[in-house]
Amino acid sequence: MWTSCCTETEGPAARWADSARPGDRIALFGPDAGYGERHGGLEFRPPADARRFLMAGDETAVPAITAILERLPDGCEGEALMEVPSQGDVLPCATRSGVTVTWLPRGGGGVGSRLVPDGEGRR
User: For 8-46, how does the pLDDT look when each residue is reduced to its tens digit (9 = 90+)?
Assistant: First the structure.
């Protein structure tokens, strides 16, 4: 199995990824919205009448944002902004919703530099 983990940040997952070597045994655990029993994780469960969404995050949030986008139903709209280190980090992203997906490659800029340029929000 191949795993992908961002190591440009600090934290337990980044430290683990920095020390992992080919052949190491791992166990992966995480929430699964399809599992009907209590699993202890947090799932994205918007109110039933929610139709407009704004999602934004850096490369550490890309797996969660793309999973949410895959599950959004028709009739939803909004915007998903995903900042990644480079153009090579842009991934295919399927959604049947009307949410616009915008990839923001940093191209050498600092984390967050494309999400909130110069401290200003998107308009």
Answer: 666 666 677 777 778 776 655 555 656 667 656 567 778
* Secondary structure of 59-106 as H, E, C letters: CCCHHHHHHHHHHCCCCCEEEEEEEECCHHHCCCCCCCCEEEEEEEEC
The structure's pTM equals 0.66
Rounded CA separation 28/87 (Å)? 28
d(CA 75, CA 99): 9
Contacts of 107 (CB under 8 A, 6+ apart): 86, 87
Instruction: Write down the pLDDT at residue 79.
Output: 92
Give the CA distances from residue 29 to residues 26, 64, 73, 78, in Å, rounded to whole numbers and listed in that order: 10, 14, 26, 30
Q: What pLDDT, in 10s, does the model give residues 45-66?
A: 787 888 899 998 899 889 889 9
Written as one string, the DSSP assignment of 18-58 is: HH--TT---------TT--S--SS------TT--EEEEEE-
Nearest CA-CA partner of 33 in 80, 76, 71: 71
